[in-house]
Amino acid sequence: MTEVEDEIITLPVDERYHTAIESYKKAYKESLEQPETFWSREAGIIDWFKKWDKVLDDSNPPFFRWFVNGKLNASYNAVDRHVLGGKRNKVAYIWVAENGDEKIVSYDGLYYRVNNFAKALLDMGIKRGDRIILYMPMILEAPVAMLAAARIGATFSFVFAGFGASALAERINDSQATLVVTADGSFRAGKIVKLKEIVDEALTMSSTVKTVVVVKRTGIDAPMQEGRDVWWDDVIGHGSNYVKPEEMDANDPLYILYTSGTTGKPKGVVHSTGGYSVWIANTLKWAFNPGDDDRWWCAADIGWVTGHSYIVFAPLFLGLTSILYEGAITYPAPDRLWEIIEKYRVNMLYTSPTAIRTLMRYGTKYPKMHDLSTLKVLGTVGEPINPAAWKWYFENIGDSKTPIIDTYWQTETGGFVISPSNGLGLPPLKPGSATFPVPGIDPTILDESGKEVKTGQKGFLVFKKPWPGMFMTLNNDPERYKEVYFKKYGMYYTGDYAVNDHDGYFWLLGRADEVLKVSGHRLGTIEIEDALISSNEVAESAVFGRPHEVKGDAIIAFVVLKEGEGGDGDIVSKLRNHVRETLGPIYTPDEIHIVGALPKTRSGKIMRRVVRAVFLNQVPGDISTLENSASVDEIKSAIELVKRETSL
Ligand code: WT7
């Protein structure tokens, strides 16, 4: 058995937290045995202009199509139906600025803003089917822009505002976007990031963008290019506009979100309008069961899938009140989250293990400064949570009463796939386990050859059936979609290791591919290698992760310099800066080691995993499993080389 703890935490038995999971089991069983009945009912969680003809078309796997011929609009579901349905005065967002300013926006206020920006987009020539890029901080204009795009049927692609210029340019080019929405700058831990300048630089590497809309957020000087750049305030107009929401097909794309894979090129994950919407609204309800009066806070960034699904679309579909926080969690002090929870009497907090581990290091002093008694449910996402962090969160933030909803999912899955279902029937929790699949998900754990592993054995997590929230394809690359996710097992392969314990609980054990999880962010090692090689100095590089007690993975790079390079002493900081500027600060290597050579297979492939194993002192007994494409002799000499080069 892998080193999983399986201490069981049974929460106080009352109506809300009872441990009878019979209703969960019933729903789960129905979802797999009678998917037509199940999804026909659950799809009613959102409003449709026209009902679908068929729940699932699986005639062309792996291109599954849900709610065939159903018509709907995501922006209509997020705002119009609440404005029309008696909730126009309910608060949609409580926006908290990094400096503590607040803006409170009702559903009516959001509706007004979305319509006005939708009108502006139309006036700027954007129409149904066009692609636009959003490169924005955590400000209200971000969800407004997403919903406005959805309203007119334009496909948006949000690029996390921590990405650098080349990463942004790559996404503009792949999506062929014609318009970018950004801000002059963003506030981050008291500093200003000059977003508009990064956009300008990215636009020197791309050619499709005709218009750049700039929100004035920080007031810093932003260079505006005549004929291309316009201020948000100037284009939105000031009247009260109404833009009729487009009737979108259930299988029209809602957005493209780029995520890292095992090549240098990010994958453009395309989500549908219908299946995705049904999935995220239901999963939020099942997992967290937010009540109409609750205040929900998903403390992720809007630029990642967590923000798309659980700050923007799902909470708005359900008509909830959300906190939208602009800044860093430790700024100005490490009690920032707890202060906001107290001040706004937040009921549900959803954050990452990295955030918990970061705050845990400051001790219990900070949470103790605040009244956290309004909290009813806590959640985590992004990476496996270690039992120690789970328990700290449970005891110190949840007062040993609130369930911890550890939600396992991915950009590709659209929403939660393995998670306790508090809204259906909460199972006894085990710190560190995401527990059981949500309805509709049929997981299994396979070995390399495709055989199911035994209980307690580590293997690869796959899903045997399609589910409504699954992505439709990869933008411009349906072949890669088939190849990466379906070729290995003929069913959806997650790329994660998992183990199932004797009670049937799922434990996620990290990525099985060349992808790192740094502070919950998914980064491709090869992207970082490519960025290093794109500098003038580097000839070869090998990048891998080292376990880090707060961030999950730390980024380690081994590089070979070009002939004659590296004379000036500060080559390491030069390379770190180069990566920071091209890909973004989250990609900055923690360590860069300059070596004279890197081990390669006979076919010339750098043996990244050998370098890693030697670096981590993990050279296992059976080295032949290390690198499938290399011979044992090659690996032996590779190990010798790494040892010699690094004197490790
Ligand atoms: C990868 C997906 C899902 C939204 C944010 C990340 C890891 C995610 C968990 C969890 C263990 C987790 C997996 C997965 N992961 N949540 N609760 N327990 N691992 O989305 O960037 O697409 O990353 O994050 O490795 O494959 P993403």
Which helices and strands occur, and which strands form pairs?
Blueprint: H1 22-33, H2 35-42, E1 54-57, E2 65-68, E3 71-72, H3 74-84, E4 91-96, E5 102-106, H4 107-123, E6 131-134, H5 141-152, E7 155-158, H6 165-175, E8 179-183, E9 186-188, E10 191-193, H7 195-203, E11 211-215, E12 229-231, H8 232-235, E13 248-249, E14 253-259, E15 267-272, H9 274-288, E16 295-298, H10 305-317, E17 321-325, H11 336-344, E18 348-351, H12 353-360, H13 365-368, E19 377-381, H14 387-397, E20 404-407, E21 443-446, E22 459-463, E23 473-474, H15 478-485, E24 492-500, E25 506-511, E26 515-518, E27 521-524, H16 525-533, E28 538-548, E29 552-561, H17 571-582, E30 591-595, H18 608-615, H19 632-646
Parallel strand pairs: 4-17, 6-7, 6-8, 8-11, 11-12, 16-17, 16-18, 18-19, 19-20, 29-30
Antiparallel strand pairs: 1-2, 3-13, 4-5, 9-10, 14-15, 15-23, 21-22, 22-24, 24-25, 26-27, 28-29
The site of 5'-O-[(S)-butoxy(hydroxy)phosphoryl]adenosine (WT7) has 22 residues, from helix 10, strand 20, strand 24 and strand 25.
Strand arrangement, major sheet: 5-4-17-16-18-19-20
Structural class determined from secondary elements: alpha/beta
Query: What portion of residues is helical?
Result: 25-40%
Instruction: Give the total of beta strands.
Output: 30
* Beta-strand content: 15-25%
What is the number of helices?
19
CATH C-level category of the domain at 514-647: Alpha Beta
Overall mean confidence score, pLDDT: 93
* Spans of at least 5 consecutive residues with low confidence: none
In the CATH hierarchy, the architecture of the domain at 514-647 is 2-Layer Sandwich
CATH topology of the domain at 514-647: GMP Synthetase, Chain A, domain 3
